[in-house]
Amino acid sequence: MAALLEEGTDLSCVFYEQHTSLQWHPGMLLDMTDLQVPFLADLVTFANPKSAFTFLNYLHEQERLYAFYFFNRFDIPRKEYNAYLQWVAQKLSNCQFGTRIDDVEYDSNKQHYIVTCIDTQTEAVHYVTSNQIVLGTGSTPLVPSIH
Asked: Which pathway is it part of (predicted)?
């Protein structure tokens, strides 16, 4: 969602992640294991094949496109897909890593949400207001109560 919104809209958005870097399936990046979907099922290709965030563009920028093509096997190793996701995450201006969301409160007078953000390194607190929010619960759902 962050990659698609970065290039494709005029929406003002930010995505917060409490980890300091992208963590895709930690502990599951085993040698000799491949992604179970084709490389075209990357973050953006079906929605926007011209995106700078496609897996093919990642390979091109890493100077590995020809090697991937001539390998003649279009499965992506899980470690390679993780590297691709980290490459995209580093390019996104709308992703804020190392920020924990501590509270979400709805202000009915102003009709917006007040989000309490905490820097996981310094514990500094700042607040963000938004008309809309999207929650990513992770593998184990944890939906905070909204006051």
From this structure: Siderophore biosynthesis
